[in-house]
């Protein structure tokens, strides 16, 4: 009977290690609030966006099982002069491309939060009314730049959640780098690792039993 149990344990572990199981992240894992304070992004991964000329910008793209979160600053150093870009935010979900424009952002007052409207222009001009977005323009001695944060529900884009597909953002107005979303899936490797551990443990116990005998 014990031999059967050990055999089943090993088979179960090997099966887990081979099956590409995908697990979705919990909703709002990132604790991002769209409030114009931007402190929620301090510990999030950011990536440089740039051309060979002009200031270096930075952006972050996150995703859980309900929302896509996006952060962009037109000055990584917080010392540059570059206005906010309102067009051509190329959000790709799987094979579908959504080109996002920012409305109500032509007259952003200095050192104030401005609520803006995201518009998906990929299939007509569709206002994303359930996607909160805030732009803050930072102005001071020698600098004038802007930061935006937003949260987009998948359902407003008629898109499935991140599990099993790639999500990325490209902003040609700022640079040609492509930012890939972080989050949304543990991928197959975590569970595969668990399977290998179970299988190894079963083999170890079985061999130990044989030696004792």
Q: Which descriptors would you attach to this protein?
A:
213 residues; 2 domains; alpha+beta; six-stranded antiparallel beta sheet
Write the element-wise H/E pattern from the N-terminal end onward: HEEEEEEEEEEEEH
The order of strands across the largest sheet is 1-2-3-10-9-6
Count of all domains: 2
| Annotation, overall tally of beta strands | 12
- Averaged pLDDT, please? 81
Strand content: 25-35%
Distance between the termini: 16 Å
Low-confidence stretches: 10-27, 185-206
Biggest beta sheet summary: 6 strands, antiparallel
Class from helix and strand fractions: alpha+beta
Helical proportion? 10-25%
If helices are DSSP runs of H or I spanning 4 or more residues, what is the number of helices?
2
Cα-atom Rg, whole angstroms? Answer: 23 Å
Shape: globular
Overview of the molecule:
- The protein is of the alpha+beta class.
- α1 (2-18) packs antiparallel against α2 (187-212).
- It contains two helices and twelve strands, in the order αββββββββββββα.
- The chain starts with a helix and ends with a helix.
- The strands form two sheets. Strands 1-2-3-10-9-6 form a six-stranded antiparallel beta sheet, with no helix packed on it. The protein has a six-stranded antiparallel beta sheet with strand order 8-7-5-4-11-12, with no helix packed on it.
- It folds into two domains: 1-23 and 187-213, no CATH class; 24-185, no CATH class.
Brief summary of the model shown:
The chain is an alpha+beta fold and about 210 residues long.
Task: Summarize the topology.
Elements (H helix, E strand, L loop, with lengths): L1 H17 L28 E3 L7 E7 L3 E7 L15 E5 L2 E8 L9 E3 L1 E4 L5 E2 L5 E8 L2 E11 L13 E4 L7 E3 L6 H26 L1
Antiparallel strand pairs: 1-2, 2-3, 3-10, 4-5, 4-11, 5-7, 6-9, 7-8, 9-10, 11-12
Keywords: Membrane, Signal, Transmembrane, Transmembrane helix
Organism: Companilactobacillus farciminis
InterPro entries: Firmicu_CTERM
